[in-house]
Design a protein that fits this description.
The protein has 300 residues and is an alpha/beta fold. It has helices spanning 12-15, 36-48, 62-74, 94-101, 111-115, 120-129, 145-157, 174-182, 200-212, 235-248, 257-270; strands at 6-8, 20-24, 53-57, 78-83, 105-109, 136-137, 165-170, 188-193, 219-221, 278-282. Helix 9 links the parallel strand 8 and strand 9. The longest helix has 14 residues, at 235-248. The radius of gyration is 19 Å and the shape is globular.
């Protein structure tokens, strides 16, 4: 479903500060290629042109699941390089089992090797070991130049709707890079990192430079809402997500979306948005499993 729906969310926590909240429901684009995964993967799938698509992720990677689902839907071979050699000797968790059921081959590597998969020699060794020398390679999280171009449409869809600020959760920076570039000059993007380390600003700018020749659009990051780091939640965040879902009739994904929404509520309370501001919160994904939250060992 494109463009994805943009829906009003009446919420007194924003209204009492004179702020209007909209929900950009990218989670409704496709039942298997949810949210920004559709926008990132579609141009890469076209570029793969039938070759095996190799990509990377951790034990509960949303990106791996989406890639595996795309392979099943298109009849495209997929190979997932999974962080954690120790996982090879364990029963597959529900997320990796879903990948396998969709036809993805799984190749487990130790964490040290995984951190160096961007090294051409390490990557070549992995491709040789898996018989995928001619494969099309997509980075962890799917964030490359094609993905950024695909996500630019997200910003373009938010033009002409009175949106002042477009907010989304960030893991690798690709969606933010495209979103910001697609917005109108009088709009700005706000990224809420779900990972610690402070690297997303440079990474987002690097992606924009590769695609657009430099920083594009107006965007900023607020890194106060990681809740301990990637794939970590707290009882407070879980309670917030449950309450937000009941208020607005959606199932709130914990590892990305909940942190962004929590951050927006906090920012509204702080007075960070001038009265009269309209904020569009991009719902980039849905929970997996549908009724639960991935364990703390999860990864993007």
């Amino acid at each position: 479903m494109l463009p994805s729906p943009l829906r009003e969310a009446a919420d007194e926590r924003f209204a009492r500060h004179g702020v209007r909240l909209l929900l950009k429901r990218d989670d409704l684009i496709h039942p298997d290629l949810v949210g920004n995964k559709w926008r990132k993967l579609t141009p890469n799938l076209a570029a793969a042109a039938g070759r095996t698509l190799v990509t990377f992720g951790g034990a509960y990677s949303n990106h791996l699941r989406a890639t595996a689902a795309a392979g099943r839907l298109l009849g495209l071979p997929t190979l997932g390089v999974v962080r954690g050699q120790e996982l090879a000797d364990r029963p597959l968790n529900p997320s990796l089992a879903r990948c396998a059921a969709d036809g993805m081959r799984l190749h487990f590597v130790d964490r040290s090797t995984y951190r160096r998969t961007s090294d051409p020699e390490i990557l070549a060794d992995i491709l040789r070991a898996t018989g995928a020398e001619d494969a099309y390679v997509v980075p962890e999280g799917g964030s490359n130049a094609l993905a950024v171009r695909g996500c630019r449409a997200l910003g373009e869809e938010l033009r002409g709707h009175g949106v002042d600020v477009a907010a989304l959760a960030c893991g690798t920076g690709g969606t933010l890079a495209g979103l910001a570039a697609g917005l109108a000059p009088d709009q700005r993007a706000l990224g809420v990192p779900v990972v610690r380390g402070g690297f997303l600003g440079a990474q987002t700018e690097s992606l924009q430079t590769a695609v657009f020749g430099g920083r594009s659009g107006t965007w900023a990051l607020d890194d106060r809402f990681t809740f301990g780091g990637y794939a970590r939640t707290t009882p407070e965040l879980d309670a917030f997500a449950e309450d937000f879902g009941q208020r607005h009739g959606l199932s709130v994904e914990r590892l990305y979306v909940a942190k962004m929404l929590y951050g927006l509520v906090a920012l509204a309370e702080e007075g960070a948005f001038p009265r009269g501001t309209t904020v569009a919160a991009v719902i980039t994904g849905a929970p997996f499993p549908a009724a639960g939250v991935a364990p703390q060992a999860a990864s993007r």
